[in-house]
Write a structure and sequence with these properties.
This protein is an alpha/beta fold and 345 residues long. Helix content is 42%, strand content 11%.
Length: 345
């Protein structure tokens, strides 16, 4: 991805009364901080509002100063991505111009992403009808009740459905923002931003690990599983099975799989495949290793197996992924990079 300042990805933060300061800060931290010295491409983050001359009040005595009108979203040089922060009150009235701007942006083919309770804004605009969506697990029943046409997935960290993105609460908004960067600019760019934010480039699992319900776990098991995961990451090129990982943890395969699911929100094999796909993406971006060598180092064993998992996880091939993310040129919209179609998490 070129760092050409004349060809920046255009990001629109939708500003209106009632949005959450935390989500505004996340969006600003990801796309509004200059990290070009570290190889991150520059972004053009703008704050679009119905009245760009009036500051938008946020909770806690804060305010946000808009710098673009709403018609900037789908103007002559439209935004590449529209972001809707979460809202403090899902029951509050929403400005009609904001809902109209969202509908126009979606009609124009611009990807739209909402953080946390921002899903209620997209639902109010009618953009989630017939689509899968997620919000904070505490609000998921309310979203389903208020908008029965929305296919609410209460456990996902974030979900994409035909150009519309939604995320779970608070920290999951960071996950979604980094994933959108990863989709448009590659895993290395997202990892660089994540490191500067002192957060994980991506998290495995679902909201299920945070829902208030009793989850059987013991400190000894957690410590053992952390050590097993660290070992697997350090030796991705070696063959691993549930049985071999369970033996390293000193558990039976059945007990190991149960505790692994409880502590991570996913199965051992799914977690391992996810890590191998991530490792392969990094190798494809950073090195010129031939595909069989990338497959070996990432632990897939063969190029055919790696290609199958890329198709399942990224809806693209390793060769196409390398061509997309090692080439120079302008920014790409999320989900529109050389045929790459992001899948739901």
């Amino acid at each position: 991805m070129s760092a050409d300042r004349t060809n920046r990805q255009r990001i629109a933060l939708l500003a209106f009364p009632g949005i959450r300061a935390f989500d505004v800060s996340v969006i600003t931290e990801v796309w509004g901080t200059d990290r070009t010295r570290r190889g991150v491409p520059p972004f053009d983050l703008r704050r679009a509002a119905a009245d760009p001359d009036t500051p938008v009040a946020l909770r806690g005595g804060l305010s946000l100063t808009p710098d673009r009108p709403l018609d900037w979203l789908d103007g002559l040089t439209p935004a590449d991505l529209v972001l809707v922060p979460g809202i403090e009150n899902p029951e509050a009235d929403l400005p009609a111009p904001v809902l109209d701007a969202l509908r126009r942006a979606h009609t124009a083919g611009i990807p739209v992403a909402a953080l946390c309770a921002g899903a209620f804004v997209l639902a109010r605009a009618g953009l989630l009808d017939g689509r899968r969506a997620v919000t904070h697990w505490l609000l998921a029943p309310d979203l389903a009740a208020r908008h029965p046409l929305v296919k609410v997935e209460p456990e996902a960290l974030f979900v994409e459905d035909t150009g519309i993105w939604t995320s779970a609460g608070t920290a999951a908004g960071i996950d979604l923002c980094l994933h959108l960067v990863r989709t448009a600019h590659g895993a290395e760019t997202a990892a660089t931003i994540a490191r500067s934010m002192v957060t994980a480039p991506f998290r495995t699992g679902t909201q299920a690990q945070f829902i208030e319900q009793p989850i059987p776990r013991a400190d000894r098991d957690d410590d053992a599983l952390a050590a097993v995961r660290a070992h697997a990451l350090a030796h991705l090129d070696e063959p691993h099975t549930v049985a071999s990982l369970a033996a390293r943890a000193g558990m039976s395969p059945r007990s190991f799989a149960r505790h692994f699911q409880a502590t991570t929100g996913t199965s051992p094999l799914h977690w391992l495949i996810t890590q191998r796909v991530a490792a392969a993406r990094k190798l494809l971006e950073r090195t010129d290793h031939p595909l069989p060598e990338v497959a070996r180092r990432a632990g897939f064993g063969s190029e055919v197996t790696m290609r199958q998992h890329f198709a399942a996880h990224l809806a693209t091939s390793p060769r196409a992924y390398r061509a997309a993310f090692r080439q120079t040129g302008g920014p790409r919209r999320p989900g529109q990079s050389a045929g790459i179609r992001p899948t739901a998490r």
